[in-house]
Specification:
Order of helices and strands: EEEHEHEHHEHEHEHEHHHEHH
Keywords: Oxidoreductase
Organism: Novipirellula aureliae
Structural class: alpha/beta
CATH class: Alpha Beta
Distance between the termini: 39 Å
Radius of gyration: 19 Å
Strand order of the largest sheet: 3-4-5-6-7-8-9-10
GO molecular function, one term: oxidoreductase activity
Number of strands: 10
Protein name: General stress protein 69
CATH architecture: Alpha-Beta Barrel
Number of domains: 1
Strand content: 5-15%
Largest sheet: 8 strands, parallel, barrel
EC number: 1.1.1.-
Number of helices: 12
Shape: globular
């Protein structure tokens, strides 16, 4: 498995005793939402097999969150890592306190990410993961309204000084990913987690260049657009109601997505690469084509998905002219979570 730099040289000398000077992670990471149960029924035994298979194949980056099964995903990860000797980097997330998701422009950080709340939540993350220090703690969402008074991030910096956190990050709100640009330029985050895929290419405009400018690590999520970019779904596919994607692909969204995914398949065939690359390979390779990207997390809930997603790292990069052609699939579809 190829690796990339997640965080490095910008650390001050006095922080060297807390944070490694460089952290390299597998360019394909394990997305652990599904093993928490948010994507329909899932058996813990199958989840643990998938986690072990991923580590066996060189994956050393796992992304989870408090809300993935109310900590269940974190606990499974902790159980598996107890039996492994490999050094595995685990990123988790603290959600805001109850209220709109993502936070509205009128939300106060004092109500959503107060110091007391964050301290309690981080302690829960430590307990679930069975560690004394969290490799990467991300705020699970954000609002631009807090950029000029980003006190929640100041709380995380204090927690890092206390030895409870190594790296600090923010997972971008879907509707306003560029809100983290100011945070990056102000040196408040070490890592950002963003949506970047064949349908959503907006980060190339400014977010990714600013990440390079500031030395900020970039975790890409939703590279497969919740699975539709694998090309395995039909236009009339409907997910069970207990699967997050039942809402994500509500109405005619699946049909529209499949039609656009098929256009990508046609490009793959036009380049004569359909024998060597799956649709999933193309989607993951597109996200990895940007040098600013540190790792691409792909959801993995069984060994078959682990094998499919990790094989991509061993394939040669897509031709430059194909990457240019794939840019035409950028889709300004709005924010589906909002009901469009």
């Amino acid at each position: 498995m190829h690796t990339r730099l997640l965080s490095a040289s910008k650390w001050p000398a006095e922080a060297a005793n807390q944070v490694p000077p460089s952290i390299r992670v597998s360019e394909i990471g394990f997305g652990a939402w599904a093993i928490g149960g948010g994507w329909g029924q899932q058996q813990d035994a199958e989840s643990m097999l998938a986690l072990n298979a991923a580590i066996d194949r060189g994956v050393n980056f796992i992304d989870t969150a408090a809300v993935y099964g109310d900590g269940h995903s974190e606990k499974l990860i902790a159980e598996v890592l107890k039996s492994r000797s490999e050094e595995v980097f685990v990123a988790t997330k603290s959600p805001p306190a109850d209220g709109p998701w993502p936070p509205s422009p009128t939300c106060r950080w004092q109500d959503r990410y107060s110091a007391a709340y964050l301290r309690d939540n981080v302690n829960d993350r430590l307990q679930n993961l069975g560690v004394e220090r969290i490799d990467l703690l991300q705020l699970h969402t954000w609002t631009r309204a807090w950029n000029d008074d980003p006190q929640p991030l100041m709380v995380l910096h204090r927690l890092r000084d206390e030895g409870k956190i190594n790296l600090i990050g923010v997972s971008t709100p879907e509707h306003d990913q560029d809100c983290v640009i100011q945070l990056m330029r102000n040196g408040l985050v070490d890592v950002v987690q963003v949506i970047f895929n064949l349908f959503h290419q907006e980060p190339m405009a400014q977010l990714l260049p600013v990440a390079a400018e500031t030395g900020t690590g970039v975790i890409v999520r939703v590279a497969l657009d919740e699975g539709v970019l694998t090309g395995k779904y039909s236009a009339d596919h409907v997910f069970p109601e207990d699967d997050f994607r039942h809402r994500y692909f509500a109405g005619d969204r699946m049909q529209r997505s499949v039609e656009r995914a098929e256009a990508i398949r046609e490009d793959l065939a036009a380049f004569g690469l359909e024998e060597d690359y799956t649709m999933a390979d193309v989607a993951l390779k597109f996200a990895l084509s940007r040098p600013e990207v540190s790792t691409v997390i792909a959801g993995m809930r069984n060994v078959q998905q682990v094998e499919q997603n990790t094989r991509t790292s061993q394939l040669r990069d897509l031709p430059a002219d194909m990457l240019t052609l794939l840019e035409r699939h950028n889709w300004r579809r709005g924010v589906w979570y909002g009901g469009k």
